[in-house]
């Protein structure tokens, strides 16, 4: 399939997990893919795994200067960005009593401020008719104990998506949110089996999502098949927040 043939795709936070799966799928569908990640070694390893001429740029998604540098490099090499995935994020458990100013600030700096600044930096490179996917979470729609700050950041992204979709509509730029449930990435593989079982028990389909399943949904939202879809939140959650 070549649903992304001729398109330039930037995946911020594409060196591991869901971001890497998205980058792999976009590359397999014909896109020229550029990924970012904080650790150069991890970025290089991901580029080799993606193949298809993918490129990597070491950058901190919470740094405005890094984001500007990434976009400038892409403009110099490719002139434009047709598909933008803002996937960089963090999640640490803390109950209401345990939340510290640092916990709060770090989550909002990476998950919300980073996404906003990432899109802002990319605006000059986004071509008319481009597509943007923000990585949300089903956590923003359910009461998940100990993850209130994380959930709040994802709810903020959902709100931003509505505004950005309206602001960028005159340029034909679509902005959507992709919200998975727990996904079976390397990070989740390190979670104790008892915790995994507890998580799975809340998912009607009886398992976690595969990264490839989330990537397939991202591909749809970024492709021309979703040309009349903007401002939505697409859940890939096995019914966790829907049933």
UniProtKB/TrEMBL annotation:
Residues 7-181 form the Ketoreductase domain. Gene3D superfamilies: NAD(P)-binding Rossmann-like Domain. Keywords: Oxidoreductase. The keyword Oxidoreductase applies. The keyword ATP-binding does not apply. PROSITE patterns: ADH_SHORT. It comes from the Bacteria. Belongs to the short-chain dehydrogenases/reductases (SDR) family. This is NAD(P)-dependent dehydrogenase (Short-subunit alcohol dehydrogenase family).
